[in-house]
Amino acid sequence: MITPPSKARVSRPRLLTLLIALALLNGQAAYAQPIEFNNEVLDLQDRSQIDLDRFSRAGYVMPGDYRLEVRVNQLTALPEQTIVFHPSEQDPQDSEPCLPPTLVETLGLKPEALHQLRWTEGGKCLVLGSIEGLTARADLGAGALYLSVPQAYLEYSAEDWDPPSRWDEGIPGLLLDYNVNGQVQRQTNDNQVQKGYSLNGSGVVGANAGSWRLRASWQSAINHQTGSGEPTTQNFDWTQYTAYRALPNLGAKLTLGEDFLNSSIFDSFRFAGVNLATDDAMLPPNLRGYAPEVSGVARTNARVVVSQQGRVLKETLVAPGPFRIEDLNNAVTGQLDVKVEEQDGSVQSFTVSTANIPYLTRPGRVRYRLSAGRPTDLRHHTEGPAFAGGEFSWGVTNGWSLYGGLIGGEEYNALAMGIGSDLMALGALSFDITRSRADLPGQIVLAGNSFRLNYAKRFDEINGQLSFAAYRFSERNFMNMNDYLTLRNRGEREQSGKERYSVAYNQQFAQLGVSASLSYNHDTYWDRGSSDYLGLSLTRYFDLGQLKNISLSLTGYRNQLNGKPDDGLYLSLSMPWGNAGSISYSGTLDRRDNTHRVTYADKINDRSNYQVSSGWNRKGGLVNGYFRHDADWAQINATAGSQPGSYTSVGLGVQGGITATRDGAAAHRVSMPGGTRLLVDTDGVPGIPIRGYGAALKSNRYGKAVVADINNYYRNQVNIDLDQLPENAEASTSVVMATLTEGAIGYRKFDVVAGEKAMAVIRLADGRMPPFGAQVINHKLREVGIVNDGGQVYLSGIERGEQMTVHWDDRAQCELTLPSVLPSALDPTDLLLPCRELSGGAPNDLAARRNNPEKSE
Predict the structure, then answer these.
(1) What are phi and psi for residue 9, nearest 5 degrees?
(2) What's a single GO MF annotation on this record (predicted)?
């Protein structure tokens, strides 16, 4: 109940509030003991007209059905559901909730605790005393049932992770995620002016039905160049069709359709078929793997495209300078192709290896992957005969793992065996051998071996991390699946690998405030020259007099492919400027050009930021601008750049999605297309500020909002930002939580009331007034006021012309209608509301009406 404006005549409700509070405090000491109110202390005109029965017991809930959110040990929130309260067997004057088997299954009880459970009502309700220490407390105002379960009876859980019994598969729905980038360019080459535009897009269309996720990936491109003599090119491709679901009992994921063989043993390739694999994402956070990271340096405003075998995994616009892409799916493995398309038309291309660190498995656990199907290309055409295969890793003892795999088919076979060991202080090491055999139609049999050694170690004494160091040697006749398919279908073999060295190292120099990272890849081939990539990054944060938080960074790289070097160096110096801005100098040196730039960056608000820069290179001066805005419906990036006599370019990128379900729909931002998301319902109230998982947005005109990029199998929390709540809205529940399976569309509802406020006096037809303590209930079956002395009531969250009922003696006794014009909150005149009596009282009580709102209306 909201405190009314300060007036002398409303002091009595405050006395009532004090009495109720004292009663509740007393009830904590004797929870089940009824409290008797001394009506003589109340300054009332008619003490016979008082209804305080619902305040006579602390925590008492009248028998009936209630829609409540269930919270376990104050943290874990289970979806809203119907909870039946019935008279207690120990004390008929008290009530207790009926916990059905379907609810108890989601509590995450250990097997030994499940054997102790006893049931009543023919197995429909749990006997609370069957588990020592289990208590239940309802808070109807917060719309929640609080269960306290001793931790000893619960399965393992972490701060942000729930056991499988609490995972939510979500609700059925449709989704469309997209990322569209357009650019308009004008270039001058040899005094010839060329104009052109490009429009590139990619995304995912999907549907959820029960535990199944249906996904179709697409990508498109339109390119036009005036004066080139070439026609406008345009294409649209569906790149992948997939259906998948989680199998929590197996800790695995089942995939049907087109997929990549994301293996830690064999090289990745595309195929159509079935795949069953243990999913590390289902493990607690401290047991999960890692997601690959892509980093580089952009010389200008650029478009970065990360792809694998032609399929776009990530596409984004970046500003000049170093960039880092950290939100790739952790299921991506193998070699990734990275293309940086600069604003001046130049292109950087390099590859990133995402090979896993040593393949170690915890003692007694088995990780596996089973696959069967046929290899396919980007256009869904089969490229080879059927195959079947699998791989495993078995934790033999504490520190030793045995792993291996097999790919078997009519023409291509591969067998791998390996061993890994945790050498404790010496690091982690693994070694494996893979033998392949390709029997190509009409050609000789090619068979060979490949040897691989992986090593990883953390140096705690010097705060260093060797992420992985790997060496691989392949004989001339060894072929992975991609080599075999290329030779079979095109009659030639590309990139016949011989040796590969890979190193990734990170070092922190805490006393100097310096962090350093090093990555190195060296590849040699049987049929062409070698390639090398070396990247080194140094960053230091320091203070200089009155200037604080200055950062100095140096990034250098050497990229040599087929004997052609592409070396570069990036230097930047940045310092804070103003309240939230920064000013920086950056210099880029490479074989093409030397560029120097001064940049100012700042925030417009919590959702918008920008940066402008000016500089020069060998061709003259240049200017650039970058703007980003996080709208409720999409993320918007805009770029603009110009260099007189060279080029002018403008770019616009929009990334977002639309999610539609039977419970509502909303447009929203999204970074991981097709991923997990949560639809939140603010009970039809628009403009409610929502925060969760790094997102800040408002509910749309229908009272719906979608928080995307939710982590799979994490306990995610979304809340209403009470500091930004509109003045005419109130939220009795402001926090919801959900642990969702991969790709799920979760649904949670906030209890929000919006409307005007008014002081009123309620009178019955015969001139009497409702009793002191009667409830005023609106059409959404929420309490909007409590009747005070003389029929006075302070109403909140009301609407003009709204019909409401007044309840006492556990029944709806009369009905009133608000006028079309409500008085101002500052108007000292009370609103007179006649209340039409309901003959004999409404036949259904409030609890039943809450459970069946349509029937009650």
Answers:
(1) -75, -5
(2) fimbrial usher porin activity
3-class DSSP state of 236? strand
Write out pLDDT tens, residues 494-521: 768 899 998 888 888 888 888 999 989 8
Query: Long-range contact list for 121-129, CB < 8 A, 24+ apart?
Result: 124/98, 124/100, 125/84, 125/86, 125/98, 125/99, 125/100, 126/98, 126/99, 126/100, 126/101, 128/96, 128/99
The DSSP bridge pattern shows strands 233-247 and 752-754 to be: unpaired
CATH topology of domain 291-354: Immunoglobulin-like (2.60.40)
Taking the model in full, what pTM does it have? 0.76
Tokens representing residue 853 in the block: 């709102």
Give the rounded percent of residues in the chain with a pLDDT score beyond 90: 34
What does the DSSP 8-state code read for residue 376?
B
Ramachandran sector of residue 434 (left: φ over 0; alpha: ψ -120 to 50; beta: rest): beta
pLDDT of residue 539: 93
Q: What is the pLDDT of residue 715?
A: 85
Strands 212-226 and 233-247: antiparallel
Is 755-850 assigned to CATH 2.60.40.2070? yes
Average pLDDT over residues 395-412: 88
Return the amino acid letter for 282. M
* CB-based burial, 377-409: b 16+ in 10 Å, e otherwise: eeeeeebbeebebbbbbbbeeeeebbbbbbbeb
Helices (H) then strands (E): counts for the chain: 6, 54
Q: Pick from 255-269, 313-327, 567-581, 697-711 the range whose average pLDDT is largest.
A: 697-711
CA 688 centroid distance within chain = 20
| Residues ≥6 apart with Cβ < 8 Å to 141 | 732
Calpha distance 687→724 (Å, rounded): 10
Of the candidates 324, 310, 215, 314, which has an alpha carbon nearest to the alpha carbon of residue 268? 310
For residues 849 and 277, the model is more confident at: 277
Per-residue pLDDT reduced to its tens digit, 831-842: 899 999 887 555
Q: What are phi and psi of 292, to 5 degrees?
A: -65, 155
pLDDT digits (tens, 9 = 90+) for 286-306: 565 444 567 778 878 888 888
The answer to whether 5 touches 40, Cβ cutoff 8 Å, is no
Residues of the chain with CATH 2.60.40.3110: 291-354
Average of pLDDT values for 72-93?
76
What does the block give as tokens for 782? 């929420």
Q: Furthest-apart CA pair in the chain: how many Å?
A: 107
For 57-155, which CATH class?
Answer: alpha beta
Instruction: Find the Cα–Cα–Cα–Cα dihedral 108, 109, 110, 115, rounded to 10°.
Output: -140
